[in-house]
Structures are given as structure tokens and as C-alpha cells.
Specification:
Elements lengths: L1 H12 L12 H4 L19 H30 L4
Amino acid sequence: MRRLMLTVSMLLASCGPKPPSPSIAPQDLISPDLVRPCGGYVGASPTTIGQLVDAAAAEKHGRLCDERKMRTIGDTLVVGKP
């Protein structure tokens, strides 16, 4: 009889609604400006050395900006994990 009472009480205790888990969506942690891509070189193919240097510098700036944003997003999402 004692086992029956323990079993019934455990079953009744597990049938209730589960408490809401405090979860935060990744969209709430990341600001929208971090998701927008940085601009690289946009234009016609360079024909002179000066245009090529300008295009390479613009492309490097865009890639470094994107890498910085990805690193920031990664650091934001990994907070609290060992």
C-alpha cells in the first residue's frame, strides 16, 4: 500500500504544467547592425594600378569589418559556456 501511495503521488506531481524556462533568443542578444554586411569594393574592374590599389584596400576594409562583426557575434553567443 505504501508503494502505491508513493507511485500515485509521483505521477500526480509530474502531471502539472512545466514552469517556463528563462531562455533568451539569439536575436535578442545581437543588434541588427551586426548582421548587416560591410561594404567591399563595388564598381567596374580596375584598369590601372591606382584603381587596383583602391579596390584592394576597400575589399580588405570590408573583410576586416565582417570578421570583426563575426567575432563580436561569436563572443556574445558563447558567454556563459565553459
